[in-house]
């Protein structure tokens, strides 16, 4: 534990609390263990706050209810499949993806499938509303909701914004992702959102034109008391202000607040990286004294840093930290190499580890509620590392060789 240099958790108060949280108690014992809030959780928090806007929240709620209708009721699902078979028999997508409550990667897939099958959803709802089933009373309400201009525009806006955040969400789960790359990707995403905000007219015009072909009620902009009514001359400008710009601004604000919260850690190590390393920055090495004060003096580290700055002139400034370590001679630049080793060691995300808890929900079902810890552990080992291939013959041979059995295994 004396070598512990980083700790990562979600943002729960009992873990991240600065007074009596787990990370505070650990840092009291091991001061080098910097706390890093899981980047995947921070991204989810930013998106969760963004979709809390009334128009986006209502849109997601309607999508979720419609997907549950077709997934949970056999009559509705059969009707849906028949409509797809009749109008698009060659279509590969025939099933709506459920909206995940926690992972926004799955939400993006859900929106894509919903939009691709939107025509068939409308036709299916029309058929269901004409039946005498118990679920038929819900279909007219859903049908009226999906034809509203607010819903369609919010649907397209969500799809575009989720598409922008999807690459970052996927890359955060990569094993090779380091702290520097994660922060750089987050900054690139925020810059892209600022560019979209500055040219909102052009981006929203494409969304508006596409959505106008899907709804005959798109140009219904009658004034209401339950929604924003800014002074606009056209329906497009009205929805651009009340939905698109509002959503982009909220996403920029939440991404900046949540994803850049650990930027102070990056600024401390940044002076070691190509493009930032300079002899004039030698004084800033004092911010890293907690890691080397017991091993080397500041004077010796500054001298080594001067040599390190000279060697970086031939290295690509965009190089990843793990590859930069290969260029850093551990014998010649002993202390610099040690500091560079700490940077990729800092945790970026803890979402992968938390999937173990989600796996337990699938393993310990009601029929298995009385099983012992040994079997539960064995099932968890099988379920968690799903990418490890197991040879059945090898398992049978191993079991047969341990003791005599009444059943002949081999």
Automatic annotation (TrEMBL):
All copies of domain HAT C-terminal dimerisation, residue ranges: 318-383
InterPro entries: HATC_C_dom, IFN-induced_PKR_regulator, RNaseH-like_sf
Name of the protein described by the UniProt record: Zinc finger MYM-type protein 1-like
